[in-house]
Amino acid sequence: MKKHLFPLFLLFIGINASAQQDFFALVGKDSPNIIFNDFRAVDANKGTSGETIFTDTSSAKVFSQTRNGAVTEDKNTYNNAQAVNMATLAYDASNNNLVYMPMFSSNIYVLNAKSREITLIENNVARVTACDINSHFTRMATGYDGSIYAINNVGTQFIKISKSGNQYSVTDLGIITDDSANGKSSFTIMETGFGGDMIADAEGNFYVFSASGNVFKVLTKELKARFVGKIAGIPDNYSVNGSAVNSKGNVVIASAKGGSLYEVDLNTLQAKQLPGEQNLHIYDLASKYFANDKAISANAFANIDLYPTRVNEKLINITINDKSVKGAVKLNVFDLSGKNVFVQSLSVKDGFLRQQVDLGNLVSGAYLVNISDESGKVLLNKKIVVTE
C-alpha cells in the first residue's frame, strides 16, 4: 500500500478488496471424521470461498527451525504439515502467515500465504498425546500483541508462540481454570467447554467459543475462564468449530459438520445466518481483527474516533462526525515516556472528517494518540500499538 492519503472512494475500494483476503478457513472433507482438505481465504460478509492457499495434496516445502534446514515429512504420521487431524488456525497479518497445529502433535507450522513455504517449530512445551483428547489443541488465535496463543481442550495448557527475528519460541503460560461463578457451565468438561475456537480482544483477553455453543471469556492475568452465555439463533445440532472477528467487530462462526456460517453479536450472543455456501466443513477460522476494537468499516464509526488501534502498516484512519467541531484539529502521538513523536494538523469541514494518516517512521511499540481542537480542548485520547 502506498504511503499517501487516498481519495475517499479509493479508500473504500481498498477496504472492501482487502477484507476478502484477511479472513481464512481450515476446511475439511465431507466426512463424519476430521480429514484436512485445505486452507482458503473466505469472504466473511458473503459467506463464500476465495483463494485456496494450501491443500492436503500440495507440494509441502518444510523448513525445520530446530534442524536449520529443509525436511521431508512422512504424510502417514500425525506429525506432518498435511496431517488429517487439524483444528487450529491463526492469522499473523504482520507477516502474512497462517499458523496451525495438528491435533495429535506438538508440532507448530507457519505457512506463508504468499510463498507457500512452511516453517516447522518443533517444541517440547506443548504436551500433546495422540490418545488423550484432553491434551489436543483445538483453539488458536493471534493476540493483540501480535503473538499467537493456543489453548488445549481442558485448559491445562495455555501457550504463547512468539517471534523474535527469524526464530519462534513457545511459552507455557499456565493452567486456565473455571471462574467460581460458572456453575454447571464449566470450561473444563466435554459437554460444555470442549473444542471450538477462540478470538482475541483489544484488551489482551480471549473469548473461547466451545463446540457446544457456550462462550467463555478468558482473563489472561487471572488465568480464569468466565462463562458469558450461550449462542442463540443457531440450530440445536450446530457444532461450533471455527470463530473469528470480522471487519464489523462481530464474530463469524462455522461448523465442521457443514452448514451455514453465522454472524454473532458478541454483546448479545445473538446469531444470524450469513448468505453464501451452505455446506462448508470448517474446522477453524482466523482473521486479523479483534473484539472491542474499532473495525475498518466504511459505514460505522463513532463521532470522534480512530482505527485500527493495532497498526501494522503505519496507517490510521481518523473519523469525526460532530457539528460542534470546527476548523483545524491537531493530532499528536506520544510515546510511553511522554515524548511527542508525531504531529499533524487536520481540517474539519462542516463537522465532518474522514482521513487516513501515515504515521511515518514510528518504531514498533505502544503510543498514545491525542486529538485536540483549535482551543486546545482534548477531543480524544486513545492507545495504539504499532507492529512491523
Automatic annotation (TrEMBL):
Keyword Signal set for record: yes
A Pfam family recorded for this sequence: Por_Secre_tail
Residues in Secretion system C-terminal sorting domain copies: 307-385
InterPro entries associated with the record: Quinoprotein_ADH-like_sf (IPR011047), Secre_tail (IPR026444), Vgb (IPR051344)
Domain of life per record: Bacteria
Signal peptide coordinates: 1-19
Entry keyword set: Signal
Coiled-coil regions, chain positions: none
Protein name, as recorded: Por secretion system C-terminal sorting domain-containing protein
